[in-house]
Amino acid sequence: MPWIQIKIDAHSDQVGQCEDWLLEAGAEVVTLEDGADQPLFEPPPGATPLWDHTRVVGLFQAGIDSEATIAWLKEQAEPETLDVRAELLEDKDWEREWMKNFHPIQCGQRLWICPSWREPPEPDAVNLKLDPGLAFGTGTHPTTALCLQWLDSQDLEGKQVIDYGCGSGILGIAALLLGAREVVAVDNDPQALTATRDNAQRNDVNDRIITVLPEQVPEAQADIMVANILAQPLLQLAPRLAQLTRPGGLIALSGILQEQAGQIVECYQQWFEIDEIQQQEDWVRVSGRRKAS
Questions:
Q1: Which residue, 228, 238, 247, 281, shows the most beta carbons closer than 10 Å to its own?
Q2: What is the Cα–Cα distance from 137 to 172, expressed in whole angstroms?
């Protein structure tokens, strides 16, 4: 079934009203888009970031009278004016369209991330079959790629690993396929833990991965700690992640913008000898080795 999109270009202080008007007009769902190619970086705790110029998009069934709907929306805004327009959205199988554009990705020398619905390009490589489902983490984002490349470069044979903020489970599962003995996958989102278990089963490593909420993490220390989250949570979690990493153990952190790297290094060097920072696009990876004391 085709759909109609009605788009409103709004300033950030108008977004809430525009969302309400579109829903009142019968929109099935309302989404927000960047109206002026403005980057959004990590917000402070409790803040909801919005672009200065935001495009508010309502999705309507194709049978609506789009001209009458647009006229009604403009009436709600009076005496202000609204930039409103309608577009016919092509009828597609959107899930299949997304699947078509998700290709295998090589991460380092040995590791490939392969969509579960595609054949691995190198059958003899270390192939991680992934269905991201509802959780973040496909290997396409620079932060995930940086962590996967780091894991691929390590000797993980027989190592105990913690994947803190596991998302789809991609980092922990990669560690197991690269030789790790066991992984504790941690996330505060139950959907992420479900996706991790599903992906672990898909890769035949579900008997070696434990999925837990943060308050359930075992106290045993890990040989390898990976945490691909965001800078502020990494700063808050620093003492805990250090506590969970054994002396001499390795850590890799990402989800960090280049301008945030100095703050992360300053914080973590209390416990870790920090390696040279690695960067991909605007994102960096901070890694190091746990000090003896």
A1: 228
A2: 11
Break the chain into its structural domains and give their ranges.
3-91, 135-290
The whole-number pLDDT of residue 90 equals 67
* pTM: predicted TM-score of the whole model, two decimal places: 0.68
The lowest-confidence range among 67-71, 80-84, 103-107, 228-232 is 103-107
For the chain, what is the HEC assignment? CCEEEEEEEEEHHHHHHHHHHHHHCCCCEEEEEECCCCCCCCCCCCCCCCCCEEEEEEEEECCCCHHHHHHHHHHHHCCCCCEEEEEEECCCCHHHHHHHCCCCEEECCCEEEEECCCCCCCCCCEEEEECCCCCCCCCCCHHHHHHHHHHHHCCCCCCEEEEECCCCCHHHHHHHHCCCCEEEEECCCHHHHHHHHHHHHHCCCHHHEEEECHHHCCCCCEEEEEEECCHHHHHHHHHHHHHCEEEEEEEEEEEEEHHHHHHHHHHHCCCEEECCCEEECCEEEEEEEECCC
- What fold, for 3-91? Alpha-Beta Plaits (3.30.70)
Between vectors from CA 233 to CA 239 and to CA 151, what angle results, nearest 5°?
80
d(CA 28, CA 125): 44
Q: Does domain 135-290 have CATH number 3.40.50.1820?
A: no
Amino acid at 109: Q
